[in-house]
Specification:
The chain is mainly alpha-helical and 329 residues long. It folds into 2 domains: 204 residues, Rossmann fold (3-Layer(aba) Sandwich), CATH 3.40.50.620; 89 residues, Tyrosyl-Transfer RNA Synthetase (Orthogonal Bundle), CATH 1.10.240. It is built from 12 helices and 5 strands. It has a 3-stranded parallel β-sheet with strand order 1-2-3. A two-stranded parallel sheet has the order 4-5. Helix 2 links the parallel strand 2 and strand 3. The structure holds adenosine-5'-diphosphate (ADP) and sodium ion. The site of adenosine-5'-diphosphate has 18 residues, from helix 1. The site of adenosine-5'-diphosphate (ADP) has 18 residues, from helix 1. Pfam families: tRNA-synt_1b. It is found in: Mitochondrion matrix. This is Tryptophan--tRNA ligase, mitochondrial. It catalyses: tRNA(Trp) + L-tryptophan + ATP = L-tryptophyl-tRNA(Trp) + AMP + diphosphate + H(+).
Length: 329
Amino acid sequence: TSMERVFSGIQPTGTLHLGNYFGALKKWVELQETCGSVLYSIVDLHSITLPQDPKILHRNILEVTACLLACGINPQKSILFQQSKVSQHAELAWVLGCMTTMARLGHLPQFKEKSASVKDIPLGIFVYPVLQSADILVYKATKVPVGEDQLQHLQLAQHLAKLFNSKYGKLFPHPKALINDDCTARLRSLRDPTKKMSKSEPDPKSRIDLTDSEEVILEKVKKAVTDFESAVTWDPKNRPGVSNLIAIHCGMTGKTPEEIVQDAQGLDTGKYKLVVADAINKVLQPIREETMRLLKDPPFLEQILEDGSMKASSIAEDTWESVRKLVGL
Ligand code: ADP
Ligand code: NA
């Protein structure tokens, strides 16, 4: 009987890529049609956990906003907002942080990955999963569409919701992960197909951005690392490179890996790459053009975020008031 509410977030650390699109955005657009209460946040507080340039960060916030709108997020149907404009995210994160152990955070695989490349580990990299939990719980979200890489973090949010409810009184519903279960659930880096495609990988050739031009798409796909076998076969375990291209191709066409492999019979991987690049361009062209159009009007984008943040705040304020009462603050 309780109301379903969707929450998800995306970092403004760079241009959105195909991994974000298939791991998250496609589902986001579907959910705004089927669920009555939907919030999508540009989680700027998360993107300062690693060194950043203030001018670039603000530009990225607008770019991600434009790109989300171009992908079909409709501000009439979804509350699209900027995390740092709603102060209750950080406030609830403090309360939840007081209930989280260092051991639990230290075990999270993303912490191990991200901190491996940094000499002096900022506290933010360690505690950001707690902020993610607050992002979700401050809206009492019940459904959280995320990529597979976020599953452990969602388990932390589930744990903290339960712990809070048992310690202070029932407030938070169980936030359920909605994870894509097709072959596009975890797209891989084009440069190193053992890693996930990510905004945070330094080499821009490792990912296809949603705003890449036709020429850039072709160049990146041509340079994608495959292996020494020339046939096109689906074998994610032993042939992660070519299988990643097939997965991307599936996402673009709605076909299964088997259908794609059937169609590609007689092509070597070199020729197959041209087919994949063309399929990617067909889907990205309208998104790219709409993003570019929207980016010419920054005040319009700022206004969308301002309106969304007002709506988000009114929900977050309610939850925060309940938290204060229950905790005795
Ligand atoms: P990134 O990891 O590129 O910095 P974010 O952390 O902002 O991206 O994640 C935004 C959403 O995109 C999350 O739900 C995340 O799970 C999803 N996502 C990111 N990379 C991938 C990928 N390679 N495959 C599938 N989903 C992904
Ligand atoms: Na991520």
